[in-house]
Design brief:
With 376 residues, this protein is of the alpha+beta class. It contains 13 helices and 19 strands. Among the domains are: 102 residues, no CATH class; 161 residues, no CATH class. Helix 5 packs across helix 6 and helix 11 packs antiparallel against helix 12. It has a 4-stranded antiparallel β-sheet with strand order 4-16-13-15. A 3-stranded antiparallel β-sheet has the order 5-10-9.
Length: 376
């Protein structure tokens, strides 16, 4: 609800209604309000925080750096865009050292493995993307590019035909569909024989790294998985994925960054600067990820370093345990004690995060986003 006055103002008052009946009867504490000066607002997203949560918000900011400042803006990026996923992305029926085999349109194909890359296709099963599940690609993508000393280079038609005849045969079978002007290939192809390029060239040189965090753009949390397979993923508005790569010689563990991104602190922060949909789904694209505050560590202080290492080790243990649970899903004699171990480790992680942020009584006031929106 927006209440306006027909007179000049220099600030606004903001309140977040937690209990509708209390609000109707004006049973409201003054500390629930926050006063925001207009000169604190800009053309970007307005971050409006209830008054009682403002101290926690400011405390988190004070001890943190924005993710983009910590790792560099270029290390937070979108996935690939083929503009023809039904032609490029497949599930392998089998593979050997040289070829990948798959079926499409009632025909079995084989293509040279060199021109493929592992790919993750959205899944709702036991292989779904989850912060506490070992990540594995579940499909592959046709990839008409090669990594050279000059970077990622498109495999041109003469080379494709001479050195990759099976891939050439497959792509030629779908030339008409791939040549459709609606694919709108960017940058614009230099010749008429480049119709099998991806729709966009973005991120091709960034995905082939030893490790990266893959982020589900629209999620209710627990959507930060660590990839060690050089997996490609697709962007595409709220339905796609983003990626985070840590720089070389970076002192922070990838598990530490993952644990913080997945914590209640940054879930809440994401809800403040991102778009929240019904059911507590938060859109966290690259714009939101870049602005998330990462608690910095003074590695010269043994207590802080130990806390960083504990959080990293516990997060890694949780992923290992969840992997064992998934492997033994049908045997409760195995999974029941594993689940108890997982729950204990999760409690240990939460306690370590409480110590990390040191918010004291303010910590309990930070809302769990899943609880805030569960009735909606």
């Amino acid at each position: 609800m927006l209440v306006l006055k027909n007179s000049g103002q220099t600030s606004l008052k903001y309140i977040e209604v937690k209990d509708l009946n209390s609000w109707k009867t004006r049973n409201i504490d003054l500390r629930d309000y926050d006063t925001v000066a207009f000169d604190e607002l800009d053309d970007d997203v307005w971050v409006l925080v209830p008054g009682y949560l403002k101290p926690a918000y400011e405390a988190i900011n004070k001890q943190s750096k924005l993710l983009e400042e910590l790792i560099g803006s270029d290390n937070i990026y979108n996935g690939i865009q083929t503009s023809a996923n039904n032609i490029y992305i497949h599930t392998a029926s089998k593979e050997d050292e040289t070829y990948v085999y798959f079926s499409k349109d009632g025909k079995t194909w084989k293509v040279e493995k060199t021109l493929t890359r592992p790919y993750f296709k959205t899944s709702s099963g036991s292989d779904n993307l989850n912060s506490y599940r070992p990540f594995k690609p579940n499909s592959f993508v046709i990839y008409p590019y090669l990594k050279t000393t000059s970077g990622i280079e498109f495999v041109r038609m003469d080379k494709l035909k001479a050195e990759f005849p099976f891939m050439h045969e497959y792509l030629m079978a779908y030339r008409e569909a791939l040549s459709d002007p609606k694919r709108d290939i960017k940058p614009t192809p230099e010749t008429d024989s480049e119709w099998y390029r991806f729709g966009r060239h973005q991120s091709l040189d960034k995905c082939d790294v030893p490790s990266k965090i893959i982020v589900g753009v629209l999620s209710q949390g627990n959507k930060y998985a660590i990839d060690y397979y050089g997996t490609l993923i697709s962007s595409g508005g709220t339905a796609g994925y983003c990626m985070i790569t840590l720089p070389d010689e970076f002192p922070y563990s990838v598990y530490y960054v993952q644990a913080l991104l997945n914590s209640k602190y940054l879930e809440w922060y994401s809800s403040l600067i991102g778009e929240v949909f019904r059911g507590g789904y938060i859109a966290r694209g690259t714009k939101v990820l870049k602005r998330l505050p990462i608690r910095t560590i003074d590695f010269t202080k043994i207590e802080e370093k130990n806390l960083h290492d504990q959080i990293s080790a516990t997060q890694k243990d949780l992923i290992r345990i969840q992997g064992e649970i998934d492997t033994n899903r049908s045997d409760h004699r195995v999974t029941d004690p594993l689940q108890r171990e997982f729950d204990l480790k999760k409690t240990e992680l939460n306690q370590a995060l409480v110590r990390l942020y040191g918010l004291s009584d303010m910590d309990d006031q930070i809302p769990l986003i899943s609880k805030m929106y569960e009735a909606n």
